[in-house]
Amino acid sequence: MMKKELTRRSFLMGSALAAAGMAAGALTGCTSTGVKGEGSTVPIKWVPSEPESWDYEAEMVVCGCGIGGGCAMIEAHDLGLKVMGIEKSNSMREFAACTWSGGSLCGAGTEHQAASGIPDDNPEDMKKDIQAAGDELGDPELIDAWCKLSGETIDWLMKRCGCQVLDGIRPSEVHITHSRNHNSKPEGSGYGWMVGIENTVKDLGIPVLMETAVTKVHRAANGRVIGVEAKDLNTGKTINVKATKGVLLAMGGYGSNMDVWKYYSPVMKDIMKVAKKVSTSYPYQISGDGYHMLDDLDAYQYPGQSLYGCANVVLDDLGNGDAGILPHRWSKYGAIWLNQEGNRWGNESTFRDYYVTRSWRYITKMVYYMLFDDDLLKSKNGQLYAQPIIDTCTKSGYTKSVYSANTIEEVAEYFDIPGDQAAKTVAEWNEIVTTGGKDPVSDRTEMGAPILKPPFHILEITVSVGTSKAGTMITPKAEVLDNDRKVIPGLYACGEMASQQCHGSARQHISGGCNSTAANFGRYAARAVAGVTDEAATASAKAAMEAGPTRTPEVVDFWDRAASGVAIRELAASGKYLY
Ligand SMILES: Cc1cc2nc3c(=O)[nH]c(=O)nc-3n(C[C@H](O)[C@H](O)[C@H](O)COP(=O)(O)OP(=O)(O)OC[C@H]3O[C@@H](n4cnc5c(N)ncnc54)[C@H](O)[C@@H]3O)c2cc1C
């Protein structure tokens, strides 16, 4: 259980800092030397901090180099800023959440949409769709800014960063007025976005301190954020990096840290009590470090709404899961979802049942079992979605999630499902598929294939936690607000460190919205730090796009990404990158 202990430790470290900040701040305010004004009796909630010396200096310091931080660095460079990044892992392309993501990125009015037969999408229609998904509770100004830049950002990722996208535009249940999800090549995951971003950062010579974890943000006595403290994870040395114009917090959410989930997200705390298993589909180093820093700075923090679904196959005893099974994308070809009693419980062909309406919350222990035959496993989809997960479990000897056998009864009973009931359900399924009768369980029209060819395969699908719809409150320029809703000078945030406002009630997951908000508010932060007008920023982006990418787009291979998944699990077991 190394991961649990380590994540717990890193979480406690943040809490201790926060607690220390509260106490010391209150003391400072009471002695009337507090930063809130001479003679003030208002206790301050943060401790002024300034190191004796600085090891590095830049105008803009970007903390965390995923899609949000990566886009911010490139935009800042193009606007003439001296920018540098600090990144905890050793690879932007392998360890960002975007790499592991489904890869959808939404944007309105792109050239790719026009070329794909969607010529008239626009920010106003996108705004309507986004607000409807969040019950009209999203922040209108922020959503307005996001939608306005969203199309340009996708064009920019393709032309400036050389990202390649799959043909066509993916539809989604949220983007009602127009389809607007763009997926990067090769297989639609976010790997291709990060390859283009990382290549561009390298080619532009933007310095990034790798394997270096930001541990604290320095806020001077005058209230301005002036830099950060970080730790070199190889030498253990503490370094201080000065930011003369701005610090961007882009360290992602708390995806992999169950303790932080429970702390910030009440709904997940409840689910963890009831569900058979809850695991994360996030790269493990994305563990909520930045949230404690926000607390320490007295930045406003939303209670966490969360993206959670029932889509993970657990891979090890450390609590890592893989959501790459994406049940809705291929179950329609002939896999069924059984509950613990051996009955089908939902519509296997839709994203809705496991991520939007979350009907799995009402089944026993919030767990279900994906059952399919060997023909489906050997098909293109089975090889893409299931085989890598089965291989990972087989390789590591982890036998609690995946099982294969020659009879339906045997695979079912392995997971304590009554074998006779499972066999009956499969027989009913085969009957409907072959005769074309009405499906009593769902309104499906595409029924897939019968389940006939042994060996049969069964995967236990459990609750996965994903994106943190939480974090701090920002302005449309990505400036961070404090608990009095005042701008903290010099501090900016994007992505999962500031994502709540765009999701509103989060009743429906905004597909493609997390990568998109991260990229767009990263770019907005760079524009604000550079102090340029919208017109100047647009002209700069246009010039960069006309100049083209820094290198010929790299053709990336799906299996590169699969290999990175294996590598990160090995690193997780070693505890590296948790400090
Ligand atoms: C399985 C899965 C599927 C998803 N599907 C989609 C999808 O289809 N569409 C969509 O829009 N979104 C999707 N998402 C969510 C989306 O990928 C993320 O919300 C988005 O990429 C977050 O970007 P970010 O820049 O905020 O942070 P991240 O990409 O999380 O980057 C944070 C970076 O900061 C680094 N870091 C962390 N702590 C520190 C520290 N202390 N010091 C320095 N660096 C640090 C991390 O190593 C990382 O590189 C998915 C995510 C997952 C995991």
TrEMBL record:
Where do the FAD-dependent oxidoreductase 2 FAD-binding domain residues begin and end?
Answer: 60-507
Q: Does the keyword Transferase apply?
A: no
Query: Which keywords does the record carry?
Result: FAD, Flavoprotein, Oxidoreductase, Signal
What Pfam families does this protein's entry cite?
FAD_binding_2
Molecular-function annotations in GO: steroid dehydrogenase activity, acting on the CH-CH group of donors
Cofactor(s) in the UniProt record: FAD
State if Signal is listed as a keyword: yes
Q: Which Gene3D superfamilies does the record cross-reference, listed alphabetically?
A: FAD/NAD(P)-binding domain, Succinate dehydrogenase/fumarate reductase flavoprotein, catalytic domain
Q: Which residues form the signal peptide?
A: 1-18
Known PANTHER family for this protein? Answer: FAD-DEPENDENT OXIDOREDUCTASE 2 FAD BINDING DOMAIN-CONTAINING PROTEIN, FUMARATE REDUCTASE
The protein depicted here goes by the name Putative fumarate reductase flavoprotein subunit
